[in-house]
């Protein structure tokens, strides 16, 4: 049985179709025979199911082996290692057209290309490359996918040592139930926060704004982002001369943080509007940690998300994604990226996945 | 008992010295009386030990209270929260001259400014500020400290909610014992790694270069940084035409990573030269994880460090430091920053500290 390669597609006859497609889900049937993507042929060569593939463009008759196929760049190593890893895990999968965001369609275990169901849409990436926020969103949303929308968008990162890390990307719906009325109050704008000498009782203990100055001290300190939000709603007055209160606080925030402060404030606002309480995520290396349903600070419950506020055109380094997702997993939270776009926030969550 | 403030120093008489310095380690004696830094006076005001401080510059006779002192910017809130936190933990501490890298000298528990010993040299930082690598190195080395060299350099970061996170900074000495002779061998330069069809047995199994292609497959794949290192030592030949092997590999690395590849290669080289094996730290969001004493990959032992390679002029965001150190702690490793300087690498380690 001979397979041939024309530089784009590997082809085989009826026997190859029976043996590789019908029995094991490689390639796709074509005119009674078989068409394989180079990465699929590479896997057959790697396994020794096929020894060499004949090169249509080469008259020498010397066939292509696994190593020369990989060296030829007809197959990206990153694609090969992901393909192999998923095969090792017992999945059948099909490469897509290279223009797609999705590199592989992965079928549920026990199913294959002859079935309709899709378990994962996988995009491959080298540890050493970068990926922009828009592409991650496309993976999460599956906008280019004709297939079943119930499938999960997955980024498969191949590290320098060819280990594969899978990240499940999703567009979560955020909703909480924390809405408390607070009577308006006054505070002092310090250099890096706002001190509230006589806070309304609900401010900290129910709505979970700020922190008490000390365990036995009723005075509350607000972060600048909390203060800017409360001031923009008219709840907080800081009494700065000649400037609107909210503007004075935002100016103070920008002094140190620049546009990052504006970005964090927009994310803070969006989370509060969804009934969710954002608190600092500093100890977790994030912008915020969140609580969805706060009725009293004495009974907070577990914080669900770690949130990082980023510009919509942010370019992700896979290593940083790996760091964020691993840390969030370690503290039983989900990593949430808040991408600030014109007119709102796009949410993108990332979690470690074992297919 | 009346304390007075001239805009720089708070002063009291003999009674104040007895009550605050002799008994509780606040300030320093001067002419039989007491001199306090504003942050120390702020803490006495906060605790209610003193109600108000008289302002020498103000004839109205209205004293300065805690809130107005903090609002006046005579005391940085960041300094105040660190001072308070360390006092709450039972330490006596003294502010230093503001030109120092060190903000507070912290005495061992049970000791004070009248003793010679120093436990910690503490530098304070707001979560929202940045700090450059040079300053972190100065904290670690204590180069500006006249005091006991046995003291520990500490960065105290105050987050938006005024919680304090302590990071111990150090300049570690790195040494390992992994030196194995490898006969020279050949490999194929693929797009993102080097494939070694017939590797010497010691290459992977003893010296821990690369990975096997599969559990039962003897072929070894090397990362580009491993391959560049081995090639520069003359151990690996990849047979690229018209170019030295090592240059061809480095060029491939730079194609994707730019100067980051060179930085990583220098750090890789320095670690290997110290007898330490660097492997990818991708799953931990780092450049490398390290093994100091590898005799066989079947008996690796625990990896000690996570390493991040950075340019010497890197500016750290406290949030990123917090993220790295927390993750490393969670996997029982120490976080190590490798700062590439002219002629070598400066090592800087950071660990979470509970004083």
Describe the fold and architecture.
The structure is a homodimer of 355-residue chains. With 355 residues, chain A is of the alpha+beta class. In chain A, 29% of the residues lie in helices and 28% in strands. Chain A contains ten helices and 23 strands. Chain A has helices at 14-24, 38-47, 66-71, 77-88, 133-141, 201-205, 224-232, 245-257, 259-273, 318-330; strands at 4-5, 10-12, 28-30, 33-36, 54-55, 93-95, 104-106, 120-126, 131-132, 152-158, 164-170, 185-186, 188-189, 193-196, 211-214, 217-223, 236-237, 277-280, 288-291, 305-311, 315-316, 334-341, 344-353. In chain A, strands 6-7-8-10-11-23-22-20-19-18 form a ten-stranded mixed β-sheet, with helices on both faces. Chain A has a five-stranded mixed β-sheet with strand order 3-4-2-1-5. In chain A, a hairpin with a 4-residue loop joins strand 1 (4-5) and strand 2 (10-12). The two termini of chain A are 33 Å apart. The model of chain A has no long low-confidence stretch (mean pLDDT 93). Chains A, B: The active site is at residues 291, 302, 333. Chains A, B: Belongs to the tRNA-intron endonuclease family. Archaeal long subfamily.
Features:
homodimer, 355 residues, alpha+beta, MutS, DNA mismatch repair protein, domain I, Trna Endonuclease, Chain: A, domain 1, ten-stranded mixed β-sheet, five-stranded mixed β-sheet, 10 helices
